[in-house]
Design goal:
mainly alpha, 14 helices, 79% helix, 0% strand
Length: 314
């Protein structure tokens, strides 16, 4: 079975993600997205550095080899910089109304992560994984009811493409991070991702001449930066420490639970009630997660054991 502590941490990440995407879809509106992301990610990196220093983990950071730093640079570039810019620009372009579109696309990350994990990490695929993936995808769609309109504006379509590109890059980052987590702690990997990623985003702002946008931020912007940074801090702390203990496929599948949370918050904010399709969606998502997390870890191994015993008696 998967490590219970790891599962609990990733479940916590899923809940945090559900709230975070909803809040960010509002916080990012009317701002320069890359500048907003830079300040938020840098703040998270500084807080992670403080946590490492407070808990005496700074020694582990100083002992990192060049090879390990190169791996953290890869994580920072693939997971901590470009996808953040793409994702938040995408949310900004999609807008407030169909916020569930961004949530739905982001929660398809488990599909790409599973494929990459099977190829590069040799994670095994079986009928429970396939069934669970289909159930999660169907349930997420029913609950989020994303507005994929054929007459959507070019801006919204481009925003969807940005969010999808970011999601696929984060899927790749998950595979790289899982490999690095064999040697390093989840908090160290989270720090490397956010700190190095912030450096890349800063380079982007300088290259594009957007660094000056920071000067236009007011008190309200900085309040949003702080709030979203706290969500992100909790996200990376729980997720990378959880990913260290469970498979990539399992971790990214559990994240799909965040989509209903995002949509519930959107419904509550609009004063709307949940409909039957969304109830079915929740049921499908949880059934899919159970299929991936527990069924393939309990039923599938038991089935193999019984099969071996039967073969032995034959």
């Amino acid at each position: 079975m998967e490590n219970k502590k790891g599962l609990m941490l990733v479940f916590g990440t899923a809940i945090i993600s559900g709230f975070s995407i909803f809040v960010n879809s509002y916080a990012i509106q009317g701002t320069n997205a890359p500048a907003f992301v830079f300040l938020k990610n840098l703040l998270v990196a500084l807080m992670l550095f403080a946590i490492l220093a407070f808990f005496g983990s700074f020694k582990e950071l100083k002992k990192l080899t060049k090879k390990q730093w190169y791996k953290l640079v890869a994580i920072g570039f693939i997971g901590g910089s470009i996808p953040f810019i793409l994702f938040f620009k995408g949310l900004q372009m999609i807008g407030k109304e169909p916020a569930s579109v961004g949530s739905f696309i982001h929660k398809t990350i488990f599909i790409y992560a599973a494929i990459l994990a099977i190829i590069f990490l040799k994670e095994k695929i079986n009928k429970w994984l396939i069934a669970g993936a289909l159930l999660i995808l169907s349930g997420t769609y029913l609950f989020a009811t994303p507005k994929f309109s054929l007459v959507a504006s070019q801006t919204i379509i481009q925003g969807m493409i940005f969010v999808l590109a970011a999601t696929m890059m984060w899927a790749l980052e998950n595979v790289i991070a899982k490999h690095v987590l064999k040697e390093l702690s989840g908090t160290i990997v989270a720090f490397g991702r956010m700190f190095i990623g912030s450096i890349f985003i800063l380079a982007y702002l300088i290259a594009t001449g957007e660094l000056s946008a920071i000067a236009k931020f007011g008190q309200q912007h900085y309040l949003w930066i702080f709030v979203t940074a706290m969500f992100l801090l909790l996200y990376v702390l729980t997720y990378y420490n959880g990913l260290k203990l469970v498979n990539v496929t399992t971790a990214t599948s559990v994240l799909s639970i965040g989509a209903p949370i995002t949509s519930l918050l959107a419904l509550a904010f609009k004063g709307q009630q949940i409909n039957p399709y969304q109830i079915y969606g929740v049921m499908l998502i949880f059934t899919g997660v159970i299929s991936i997390v527990w069924m393939q870890k309990i039923v599938f191994p038991v089935h193999k054991i019984l099969k071996v015993k039967a073969y032995g008696r034959g």
